[in-house]
Design brief:
By secondary structure, the protein is an alpha+beta fold. Helix content is 40%, strand content 17%. The protein is elongated and about 60 Å long. The N and C termini lie far apart (56 Å). The relative contact order is 0.14.
C-alpha cells in the first residue's frame, strides 16, 4: 500500500515500468472480449495499463500483450491507437466547449486582438486551416504587447471542430483566458499531444512551430480567413 503522500503507480504492460496513473491509460476487457480504453478509470474489471503514448498502445496491440495481461483471449480490432487518440481529441474539444461556455474563450479577429491588449490571455487558438497572414497579424499583436513569449499556441483543431465547439460557423482564431476551465483545456491538450508525442508550443509565437503548423504548411488549399 502506498503512503497517502505517495502517488499511486501501475505497471505498463509494454515497458514493464511503474508510472503514476496520469502517465498511463487504463484498459479493460468488456464482457464480449473487446479491449476498451477506460479514460476515467471507472469501468468494472481488471485494469490493464499502458503508457499513454500512441506507439506503446500500437506495440501492445501488435504483440498481443492485452491477451497476455488478461490471461485469456480478447478481441482486438485494428487501429486501437487511432481510436484512443480520438478519445483524447474528443476530451480536448469538450474542454474547449466548456471553457467557451464559462466565458474564458473569445473568438473573432478583432476580439482576439482586444483580449491580448486587455485581458489575461494564456493561449491563442488557430484553426488548422487558418491562413498564414491572419496568424501572423495576431502574432504581431502579441509581440507589440510583450506577450509572445508566454502564450501557448493551440493549433490542434480543424475549423469544423472549432465551429462545433463554438456553436457557429467560420471560427478561425480565438483567445483562451486564464481560469480553471482554461487550465483544464491546456491539460487536455497536453495529454493529447503527449499521446501523439508532440509537445506544448509555449513561446512558439517567437519562431518555433508545432507539428500541426508544419503540416499546415504543406496544405495548398482549404485555408480559412476571417
Amino acid at each position: 500500500m502506498p503512503r497517502r503522500d505517495q502517488e499511486t503507480e501501475r505497471t505498463c504492460i509494454v515497458t514493464r515500468a511503474a508510472s503514476p496513473l496520469d502517465a498511463l491509460i487504463r484498459f479493460v476487457v468488456a464482457p464480449d472480449g473487446a479491449v476498451v480504453p477506460d479514460f476515467r478509470r471507472r469501468l468494472p474489471g481488471r485494469g490493464i495499463w499502458v503508457t499513454a503514448r500512441a506507439d506503446h498502445v500500437a506495440t501492445a496491440e501488435r504483440r498481443r500483450l492485452f491477451a497476455r495481461a488478461h490471461g485469456g483471449p480478447v478481441k482486438q480490432d485494428a487501429g486501437l491507437a487511432d481510436r484512443v487518440e480520438r478519445g483524447f481529441a474528443e476530451a480536448a474539444l469538450s474542454a474547449l466547449s466548456f471553457a467557451r461556455k464559462a466565458g474564458l474563450v473569445v473568438s473573432g479577429f478583432a476580439k482576439v486582438e482586444a483580449a491580448i491588449a486587455r485581458d489575461h490571455v494564456i493561449g491563442l487558438i488557430h484553426a488548422v486551416e487558418a491562413a498564414p497572414d491572419g496568424v501572423a497579424k495576431i502574432t504581431a499583436c502579441a509581440r507589440r504587447h510583450g506577450r509572445a513569449s508566454e502564450l501557448v499556441t493551440i493549433r490542434d483543431f480543424s475549423g469544423a471542430e472549432l465551429d462545433l465547439a463554438f456553436g457557429r460557423a467560420n471560427v478561425v482564431h480565438a483567445a483562451l483566458l486564464a481560469g480553471t476551465a482554461g487550465d483544464n483545456l491546456l491539460a487536455r491538450i497536453d495529454a493529447w499531444r503527449a499521446f501523439r508525442c508532440d509537445e506544448r508550443d509555449v513561446g512558439g509565437l517567437d519562431g518555433s512551430s508545432t507539428a500541426q503548423e508544419l503540416n499546415t504548411g504543406l496544405m495548398s488549399s482549404g485555408q480559412r480567413n476571417e
